[in-house]
Amino acid sequence: MKKSLQQLPEFWWAVLLYFLAVEILMVAASPSMVIRPDIIVTRLVFGAVFILLYVLRKGLQYRNFILISTIAVYALLTLLYKETGTLNSMFFSKLDPHLAHIDQLIFGFQPSVVFSEKFQSMPFSELMFFGYFFYYLMPLVIMLLLYRYDLWELKSFGFMLISSFLLYYFIFILLPAEGPQFYFPFPENTVQAQGFFGWAIKRIQHNGEAPTAAFPSSHVGISIMVLIWLWMNKRNWVKYFLPFTLILIFSTVYLKAHYFIDVVAGIFSAPVVFFINFTFLNFIRKQNGHQHQGS
Length: 295
Hints:
- The protein is an all-alpha fold.
- 75% of the residues lie in helices and 0% in strands.
- The longest helix is centred in the C-terminal third of the chain and has 29 residues, at 260-288.
């Protein structure tokens, strides 16, 4: 039994720790939140997926098991993201007035409003929407590449990715901010879709977006965290992902998902998030007696 549990991806420990920390926050702030149906359902879904993957692991090649597990939990993070929109009102009021004020002090105007007004051409708009879309695509591309080349690094990347998302989600609960797309009135809070990627992002936002997760920008933080991981493990890959990451950073303001100050916070928080999760991963592996091994 112990050996079987040790073969599971390490990110499950991060998921467990996240749930424990969030439950403590809910009990401290509003105990009734713990028994909300949507909160319970989310935890049941994660529990069911864990059991299903645990049962299926013997019937799958280990490499396939790790890839499927990582992609499955990466997809399930959408549930936890939307949940922060409910939980981020437990302690503090929304920070948006302060964040917008900081942007105004820096620039004398709102970058998240003016940027898209000044650059409305279809090619530039699609470039920005593509950059934003790349945020969802980049982890999957890296996972598939690592699946081909190195199982150990696939496990490491999966942990760093998922645990970093969870850490940002925890921050969003404590630092509630909606972002320009929810804070500003229409039409200042929207950008017209003019092509395929614009349409795709609008669909994603319609089905998965929530008034949460603006500060710091996890789009920026996660993307930079990924670059840091690549620099440490697959340095020759960085040059392929860096240009798209730069476009992504600009797109977060262009699409009004974030204030400029959110981007700055995302840049500076990324190394901290990386260090915390890297240390946590090494701790888990030391406890399990895992040594670096090839594919």
